[in-house]
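Hi support team,

I've been running sequence recovery on a batch of backbones for a student project. Most finish fine, but this one hangs at about 90% for roughly twenty minutes before it completes. I'm not sure whether the input is malformed or the queue is just slow. I've pasted the structure tokens below so you can try to reproduce it. Let me know if you need the job ID as well.

Thanks,
M.K.
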């Protein structure tokens, strides 16, 4: 924390001079080095302290501590400070050394000691304390609560600071800190303090404001929620100076006059890029209304403009205000580590690790699906899972993401199996469920006891509550009967969106009955007007490629709200690819919907 007020030991000592109890100045030989001079000064001050009154000695020791701090002799400085008894000081000097000792305790990560010093000062001191000193005392107290991870006490202290501040930039910063602290509250903690009945008017107002927005995650309802709160809390400071995070609610869109769309015109990603482009164009043309300014779309070939430096130059020449794209992961990684581009970028893929301000990332992430499946399975009571994924790059991503999320929740991935050629599916499922081991044990036993007839019933392993499946439709239609044949027909199966082709096929999909799977609104809900119009022009909107039309539509619809989504964690927008929100890394996350096959047809699960 940056403190606004600093103590002045020089001023304190000057006051002692005026009162006739100033220390005499020691004579330091001129031939000494600066370090030797400081050491001589320290020794002189300590010797003087031995022969001084308690109050004067305390001030002299404080000056010694400050000199030691300038020499980076922190341990000695802390020792000197800890030897000072604040109770011996008159009220006027008590505050100065209280602040110094409290700051010293915080530097040593001793928040309990810091709070004790502040409490003793409040109980004993009766000297007038000005506003700046009060704020500084509270800032030290807040630091102590932060070190203790006592978030509600820290919040209360920030609210006290705000009430002492004038309407300045400092007050705005404090309100922003209050909002950040509220964001750190989980739902249980927020509910507890909302109902406590012991909050002040100001504390309750802040909690109510945050609760209004947490309960109204959709951007189109949040503005009304703030308006409703303002009516009830007319005298609250947050009404006149709202947190910066809420300022974006007043404006619905970014001011964008020209959008540079950066997609490959040729190469292996060109087909996907073409579908995304059509989705963007559909959203762009449907967004045009009389009297409403519409941004210009400038299409750039990412195969030709393939470095951040080249892109920055063209953006400057064209006066573009926003970039949508690129599509390749490598290009997004380059942009994530570059500082050449100042305008916002809505990339259509995800960087590996890097993150920088102004770079937003949006794609059809398989990892998002795996994480949501983990949470759904856990909520359904699944604690031990078997993972069945394709022997491919995206299969490995789903495997890793599900395992990480499920184990973080407390679940166990009991067994995993990857599959490849269809001719090996039976062996793959046998390995997954250990039915091959059951049969082998029976054969070994018969050979050992060949004279006796043994009754045998083959069975699967029993340490599995569910199977997590990632498979394309044709593979899933063959894997499902083999799973049932291996005595696992009673196990629930959770699958990724890859399971559904996009077009209902009740005859072929009979074998997928009862499988729960995750999917996009584009694929599972009644078609939107955008999808209807695109379907009139293209015959592949219900294929896997159709998701890319949806990605283009959502990219265009979400860009005006990027700042609001960033400023208000948990805020959501409904899209064709899912319910969209933004995490702290600038990644747009999709919450998908759930369905189950019944009589070969997907049925939504509430």
């Amino acid at each position: 924390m940056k403190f606004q007020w600093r103590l002045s030991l020089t001023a304190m000592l000057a006051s002692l001079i005026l009162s006739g109890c100033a220390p005499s100045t020691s004579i330091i030989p001129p031939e000494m080095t600066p370090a030797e001079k400081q050491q001589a000064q320290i020794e002189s001050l300590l010797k003087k302290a031995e022969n001084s009154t308690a109050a004067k000695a305390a001030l002299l020791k404080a000056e010694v501590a400050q000199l030691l701090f300038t020499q980076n002799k922190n341990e000695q400085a802390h020792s000197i400070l800890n030897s000072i008894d604040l109770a011996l000081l008159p009220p006027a000097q008590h505050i100065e050394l209280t602040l110094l000792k409290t700051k010293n305790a915080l530097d040593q990560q001793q928040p309990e000691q810091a709070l004790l010093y502040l409490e003793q000062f409040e109980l004993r001191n009766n000297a007038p304390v000005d506003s700046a000193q009060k704020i500084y005392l509270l800032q030290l107290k807040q630091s102590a609560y932060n070190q203790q991870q006592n978030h509600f006490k820290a919040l209360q202290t920030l609210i006290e600071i705000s009430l002492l501040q004038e309407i300045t930039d400092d007050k705005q910063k404090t309100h922003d800190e209050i909002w950040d602290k509220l964001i750190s509250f989980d739902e249980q903690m927020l509910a507890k303090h909302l109902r406590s009945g012991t909050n002040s008017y100001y504390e309750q107002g802040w909690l109510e404001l945050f609760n209004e927005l947490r309960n109204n995650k959709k951007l189109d309802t949040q503005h009304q929620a703030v308006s409703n709160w303002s009516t009830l809390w007319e005298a609250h400071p947050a009404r006149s100076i709202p947190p910066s995070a809420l300022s974006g609610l007043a404006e619905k869109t970014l001011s964008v006059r020209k959008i540079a769309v950066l997609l490959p015109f040729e190469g292996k990603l060109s087909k996907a890029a073409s579908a995304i482009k059509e989705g963007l164009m559909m959203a762009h043309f449907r967004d045009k209304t009389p009297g409403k300014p519409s941004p210009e779309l400038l299409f750039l070939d990412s195969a030709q403009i393939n470095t951040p430096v080249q892109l920055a130059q063209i953006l400057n020449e064209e006066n573009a205000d926003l970039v949508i794209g690129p599509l390749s992961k490598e290009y997004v990684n380059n942009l994530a580590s570059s500082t050449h581009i100042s305008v916002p970028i809505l990339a259509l893929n995800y960087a590996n690790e890097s993150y920088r301000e102004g770079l937003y990332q949006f794609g059809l992430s398989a990892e998002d699906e795996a994480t949501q499946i983990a949470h759904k399975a856990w909520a359904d009571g699944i604690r031990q899972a078997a993972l069945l994924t394709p022997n491919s790059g995206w299969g490995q991503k789903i495997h890793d993401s599900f395992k990480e999320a499920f184990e973080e929740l407390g679940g166990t991935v009991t067994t995993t199996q990857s599959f490849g050629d269809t001719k090996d599916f039976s062996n793959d499922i046998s390995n997954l469920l250990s039915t091959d081991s059951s049969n082998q044990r029976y054969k070994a036993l018969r050979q050992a006891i060949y004279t006796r007839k043994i009754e045998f019933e083959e069975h699967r392993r029993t340490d599995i509550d569910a199977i997590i499946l990632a498979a394309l439709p044709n593979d899933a239609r063959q894997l499902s009967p083999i799973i049932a044949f291996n005595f696992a027909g009673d196990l629930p199966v959770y699958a990724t969106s890859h399971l559904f082709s996009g077009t209902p096929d009740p005859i072929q999909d009979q074998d997928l009955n009862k499988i729960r799977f995750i999917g996009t609104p584009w694929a599972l809900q009644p078609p939107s007007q955008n999808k209807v119009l695109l379907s009139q022009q293209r015959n592949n909107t219900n294929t896997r490629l159709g998701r890319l039309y949806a990605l283009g539509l959502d990219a265009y619809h979400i860009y005006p709200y990027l700042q609001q989504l960033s400023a208000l964690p948990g805020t959501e927008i409904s899209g064709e690819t899912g319910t969209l929100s933004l995490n702290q890394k600038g990644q747009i996350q999709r919450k998908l919907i759930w369905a189950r096959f019944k009589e070969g047809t997907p049925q939504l699960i509430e």
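--
Follow-up from support: It reproduced on our side and the slowdown came from queue contention, not your input. Residues 2 and 582 are 29 Å apart (CA to CA). No action needed from you.
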